[in-house]
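Ligand: iron/sulfur cluster. Inputs:
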Amino acid sequence: MSKKIMLSGIQPTGSLHIGNYLGALKNWVNILDEYYGFFCIVDYHAITIEYDASQMKKKIMDAAVEYLASGLDPEKCSIFVQSDIKAHTELAWIFNSIIPVAELERMTQYKDKSKKNAENINAALLTYPSLMAADILLYHPDIVPVGEDQQQHVELTRMIVRKFNNRYGEYFKEPNTYHGRVLRILGLDGKNKMSKSLNNHIALSLTAKETEKLIMQKAMTDTNRKLKTDFGNPNICNVYSYHKIFSDEDEQKEIYEGCKNASIGCVQCKKMLAENINNELAPVRENIIKYSKDKDYVYDVLKEGAKNASETAEKTLYEVRDLMGLIDNKRI
Ligand code: SF4
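Predicted complex:
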């Protein structure tokens, strides 16, 4: 493989939203000519909290459809499901023998999730970073595009590399994170990160009408502006922060000034935003419909992706076990 390698993944938690699209998928698509991609649907990470097993297959399929719909070309990458490649959990076990428990316990995500899932603080929640390190290191990536919330886990992966190499000999390289042109977008509430669990998101799979309705009803404006005749402040308005991503400069200027001098109302402003978001997402949504109707094709992509990923992953695992003195060809 002559191209450099990138690896990333998203949990199959249900329909992806525009935050995932802007912060991850679009970024990945932009650099696919330069990097070969391993894109993993990380179902084993998704089971560390309570989930509905009867919905998991559908959620994995939805994630695969949305990966493809967003422009990930299977000719330029491998799209696969984490649990289909056994080497992920096997290498994670090996890394569990390297990472000090204290390092796992200080992970912010572990602390947050433990608080939110107080009745189910399971061991996998704690050892999540070992599995993430395995997800990454099996493929020897040059870059790992991740959000800021995963930065700490990548740092831990780098520490695992150093510890492994010290103990067993130089083998892994330390992966670098990649943020690209990340467009951060708050949820519709204007307070929190966009998240399905907070129900403040705009799902990629919504129709144009549903998107407009959601924005009209839920997108937070400048709360000091009660009437159309009130002067508004776009700098503290979440709707305007979306315009900065989805609208062209002329329209941004028109809204900025119109809001300040009260010549434009919030209803009109939101309608303009909905139209621009719908225009941006139209091709993705057409593709979601197309791939949803052709599940056989999506399964083929996942099978082919798993086959490709497995070749690299199995080779890495074999070399790791060999370095650790676990392989004896006379035995197996
Ligand atoms: Fe926000 Fe637009 Fe209303 Fe101004 S006009 S407060 S930018 S929604």
